[in-house]
UniProtKB/TrEMBL annotation, chain A:
Pfam families: ABC_tran. Residues 21-237 form the ABC transporter domain. One of its GO terms (molecular function) is ATP hydrolysis activity. Belongs to the ABC transporter superfamily. Macrolide exporter (TC 3.A.1.122) family. This is Putative ABC transport system ATP-binding protein. It comes from Nitrosomonas eutropha. Keywords: Antibiotic resistance, ATP-binding, Cell membrane, Membrane, Nucleotide-binding, Transmembrane, Transmembrane helix, Transport. PANTHER family: ABC TRANSPORTER ABCH.1, IMPORT ATP-BINDING PROTEIN. GO terms for biological process: response to antibiotic. One of its GO terms (cellular component) is membrane protein complex.
UniProtKB/TrEMBL annotation, chain B:
The chain crosses the membrane at residues 20-40, 261-281, 311-335, 355-377, 398-417, 423-448, 469-491, 711-731, 759-786, 798-824. The keyword Cytoplasm does not apply. GO terms for cellular component: plasma membrane. Keywords: Cell membrane, Membrane, Transmembrane, Transmembrane helix. It comes from Nitrosomonas eutropha. Residues 264-378, 714-815 form the ABC3 transporter permease C-terminal domain. This is Putative ABC transport system permease protein.
Amino acid sequence: MARKLTVEQLIPVNGNDQPIIQASNLTREVETGGERLTILQDINLQVSAGESIAVVGASGSGKSTLLGLLAGLDVPTRGTVFLDGEDIFKLDEDERASLRGRLLGFMFQSFQLLPSLTALENVMLPLELSGADNARDVAHNWLARVGLEKRVRHYPRQLSGGEQQRVAIARAFVTHPKMLFADEPTGNLDATTGAQIIDLMFQINREQGTTLVLVTHDKSLSARCSRVIELVAGRAVD
Amino acid sequence: MNMIRLSLRMLLRDWRAGELYILTLALVIAVSSVATVSFFSDRVQKALVLESNQLLGGDLLITSDNPVPPSYAEHANQIGLRTTHLAKFPSMVSFGDNSLLTSIKAVAPGYPLRGELKLTNPPTEENVAQSVRIAQGIPKPGTVWVGEKVIDALKVTLGDKVEVGAAELTVVSIVESEPDHSVGFVSMNPRLLMNEKDLAATRLIQPGSRISYQLLVAGEEPQVKEFRYWIKDRLSPGERVVSIQEARPEIRSALDRAGKFLNLAALASVVVAAAAIALAIRRFIQRHLDGCAVMRCLGATESDLLRLYSYYFIVLGLVASLSGCVLAVLTQEFLSYWLEELIGVTLPLPSSLPAIQGMLTGMVLLLGFALPPLLNLRQVPALRVIRRDLELVNMHSLAGYGFGVGILSILFIWKAGSFKLGIMIMLGFLLAVIFFGLFGWLLIRLFLLTRSPGSGPWSYGLANIRRRAIPSLVQATALGLGLMALLTLTLTRNDLLQDWQARLPENAPNRFLVNVQPDQQEKLMVFFDGYAIPRPKVFPMVRGRLLKINDRAVSLEDYPDPRAKQLINREFNLSWTDTLQADNEIVAGHWWREEAVSSEHELSMEEGFAETLGLKLGDRLSFYTGGGSFSATITSLRTVDWDTFHVNFFAVVRPGLLDNYPASYITSFYLPPDKIHIMQELTRIFPNFLVIDVASVIERVQSMIGQVTHAIEFVFLFTLLAGFAVMYAAIASTQDERIYEAAIFRTLGAKKQQLARAWAVEFAVLGALAGSFAAAGASVLGYLIGKYALHITYSPSPWIGVIGILVSVIGVTAFGLIGTRVTLSQPPLQVLRK
């Protein structure tokens, strides 16, 4: 039975601190068939270090778009995002990539493990990209930590969904990111496995003191976060 | 970040995961077919040169009016070449009351350096038939070997002593053939071979004697080249270097054409392989989009990705090209062994150039076709990790392959050894791509319009093509290109072989008769009739010396080129005819025009000859002949196919101009082997005739053509293999999509057979598209290459369309269904869960 502990119970949020994530007037519009469609409108958000935020909403409400913008994977039509004090849309795409490598970890609904790499190599990848020397040992430790020490040489296709998401957790935390962005991390898993994954994610998150931004449909999952932001048709509702 | 190390790791991981098999296979086939073709044709061409060098008796010949300076042979020996020398001169040989003008050759040990000297064993009591053996060494001092004609004319038997000048020498053997007896058309029968040590005793070497001294040189190709270079500037007046190319233009022509065709075949495999590589890269990129998006998400910059994949492809290219080269070395060794067994010729070792060419081809192909999509790949949006529908911009752009095509053009010009041929082939393929693309696009649009209702395999198959419009177009174009290369090769190969056979039929003229007098013409024809030999065409010939060009006296000093000097120095053979011979082609100016009959006399000159002497259209030449002098203006330049062995002239004038000058006649005819005996009768009736026997030259050329034919068959096999790689890559390029589609269809209740049928229709239609493209393209390209590059008559084949389409439909369908068999056997859930 996983312990029901939330981050905010363990790490007190220092309200005076500079927010680690700060989004202002974040708007994203797209052209579809000659029409302008607003996916996100004037989102303002501040997240303090160590805080955990759940972004919830119906399908198509703009959750993933918000996550993509906050993580600098996409650029907004208007608005700014500061990550750790850095205005990320003043950076070019390469500078944003470096910033992601330095500060961010990711987890996805479809795991996004590289099929040609083993579990170990998938976890090593962010370390290798950042030029770390002892990538193999560090990755090995992380896999042991998520309970996959016996599956290090397996390819993603040889692992169950739960196991693949554990590899993704290890890959997300292996660089000790300040922020973790998770897009529906339990969306492809059954309820029991999903719960185990979430326990593991929160446990490591707590140990690492990582700021968590989580997109989910799962009410029980959002309940474990310190704050919930609900999106309705691209707008945040309180 | 150590990108090289990471690239290597990624490469190893991708390799282990089976991601690179198709690309590597395409690359290895490309490199190995190009390198095998190059290795093999290198060896065959070297063998052909060696083979033809037998006609020279060595690899190089230095001829001189005076004894060849010993320093030449010393230098040749120093750099590892073998040498021997000889002296040739005409002289009377007597036995009793009989005497005969004989061509005498005084040889030194080592002769001949290339080829074999064959002797006839006279019939004995035990062995009634004559037999031929290969001579070991040269005649011993005091002895001579003579031709059959000497035996007949002087009525000597073996053991008799004949008088050669002041010396008495014993006839010990009968010469059947010498390798070099036909060089330069100057050899006269009958002939006698003696040891050079007896030369002094004959006292025939006197000031003013017509003696030709020769130094023969043979050895490895680089040393021969070095020697040729060394001696070039050291030759004194009267000395010249001859290689087989200069000695026998018809052999050079056969060699050139064979070389061109083999290069063409290698180029065809490059095109086919390029198509396979382009397809394989396309699949690679599609499969690596997600990985790149993840890496972008994990912090990799665009330049990181570019560096990562550049190292990746460079290493992959090097390893695959090296493997291709190793495979090529092994394959060509096997092929050479096989060919050696087949034709009984030892092929010389290849040079290392084909390996370098192979490596370069592999790298150029891979980087040329991988770099443009790679430049795209690094721009993959990181957001794709969340939104899978985000594709690469410009993914399907054909313009991205412009770089590859540009690089390929350079490779083509290099491999073809000719700017014109390289550009022609490249433009041909480029136009084909544009045409295939446009036409294919129109056809697919047509499919879109004729959306057929129903649920049969036809309707599903066509729907598949509609849905995958771009990949289908790419597949059909790549397959069409590959097949076009194969069909072009098939067409030109057949034409080339037919052309050779037509030029050198079984009954190609093998004897020339020179010095036929006007009043002997009719008598000669009657003689031929008597032996049922078809009457040959007789050509008039007037000998004349070139005195002036454009009223300026000709001076030897004006011509630094020794060959030009030699041509100026000797008498021209001028002939006349009213119609252009079939093996001649006007390349500049015009043939005799009716309205042009004027005070100015016209002259048609052979192009190469005119070039050597620096003559051009409109130049006025003045000649002196026995009966006076005349002038004529060059009104046309002709090319002559020397390999037909027909009588041809460098300079021809309009009939009538030379009527008042003393003419003799020349003719050539085919003498069947069973009628060889009539030559004795002929020379008896017409003692003034000069008979030139070119049977052995023809035999050599025919045997060379045989060898090249075998080589071409092998080379063709490799292009075919590359063709299979294209098919495989084409099928694999839509494999992932097909796996997914099959899973959905099967979940919805489709049977394996239903899917297989729909796919069979799809593949058959693709095959038909590719086949029609290829047949149309090959007909045009075949015509152009035949006409402008190989100078052969192109015979369009009405069957090429039918065969092209049929082969393509059957091949693509069979390959497609075999390739997708695995797809159908995967459980749908496994696929969908991915």
